[in-house]
Prior knowledge:
It is built from 19 helices and 6 strands. It is mostly helical. It folds into 3 domains: 91 residues, Fumarase/aspartase (N-terminal domain) (Fumarase C, Chain B, domain 1, Orthogonal Bundle); 249 residues, Fumarase C, Chain A, domain 2, CATH 1.20.200.10; 59 residues, Fumarase/aspartase (C-terminal domain) (Ribonucleotide Reductase Protein R1, domain 1). Arginine (ARG) binds next to helix 6.
Amino acid sequence: DAGRLWGGRFTTGPDEAAWRLGVSTAFDRALWRQDLAGSRAHAAELHRIGVLDADELARMLDALDRCAALFVRDAFPFLPTDEDVHGAIERWLVEDLGPLGGKLRAGRSRNDQIANDLRLWCRDACDELVSLVAALQAALADQAEAHLDWLAPGYTHVQRGQPVLLSHHLLAYVWMLDRDAGRLRDARERLDASVLGSGALAGTTLGLDPAAYAEHLGFARVTENSMDAVASRDFALEVLSACAILAVHLSRLGEEVVLWATSEFGFATVGDAFSTGSSIMPQKRNPDVAELVRGKAGRVVGALVSLLTTVKGLPMAYDRDLQEDKEPVFDAVGTLRLVLPAMTGTVASLTFDRQRLAAASVGGFALATDLAEELVRRGVPFREAHEVVGEVVRRAESHGVDLDGLDPRELAAAHPALDTEVAALLDPRRAVDRRDSSLGTATASVRAQLARAREAVAVN
Ligand code: ARG
């Protein structure tokens, strides 16, 4: 029972079913590195307050190093009687050091230990995810740069709306992802506080210094309240929120790749290495990777909802429900670790079809807004211009032509201001390049936007 950190006050050990419910080594072993870092800091604090002498500190740190070496080789000997990673490590230390191993628990609790471990883990996870996001942003920016003046249809409601540059469309995702990176950085910044010294919930009588732990573990500051420190998981919820929003953005991009790759759209081909075949239909070239990116978003959103639901209704301070915090966090981050590089590769592998994109960019009366805005420029109130052009569209539709196929006389009949000069505006390239404000789709604007995007990616 050495892997269980309690027992003295009980006459029997735990029931088998109760034990199986509570054991967490299967998943919390992932925190070994953080747990050992916390233990090193704690050993140093115990030395400072005189609980460990210099020799004991040296032997303790040495044992912690040997313990780490076992984990690195995936050879740490977990026992079925170990309740959690903290209990397993203490049991191992006692086997290794004798009674000295039992000194490390003074002044701390698994309640502050686990909060510390998960904060450290989340801190690294945020850094890692931000750099994976940056790689995807770079792949999108590369594609934007490689297709800088290519026309594409811009959609609302998946109905053609106005022509855009393909690069403008791709860069939209770079900015979405940039806010995702920002959210991860914000979450990291807020969770960067040390909880050790909180003990079970109230602090300790031993004179342990919270600031010393923060210093040792590289936390930016200490938490202000020991009860908040052991009870709160909003730091993990913020990481999960950032993960969920990111996963949803990736899902939207995945959905677009799926659409672009259909023969109906035919805008892009996914590279061989990111496509899959069919076990029965020899001709198939399926965008499974993009579909999985879309599908995996569900479990990341689920992880957020799961932890929100766990935390809701918990009274102060620590409650064992909080043990349910780890798996959603590990799963969400682990999922994004898979998804982000796969999406980066998929984006880099895309081959776009210039002809089909250009043809689609003009279809569906996509220049109707340009016509209406030209009328505005000629003094017509927009309300009237909208009606007039709507009628022009209706006429063109009844002849089975687009706006540029309409007889100029019919344009003029709709409104005297619709002269031949206006008809010359019915060109997607002109339509794109006239939208030349900083956020618009004009080639010069998009070139400047691309430069700003590159700068934003560089700091991620
Ligand atoms: N394994 C627990 C967790 O993950 C920490 C143990 C705290 N248990 C307790 N009975 N105080 O949150």
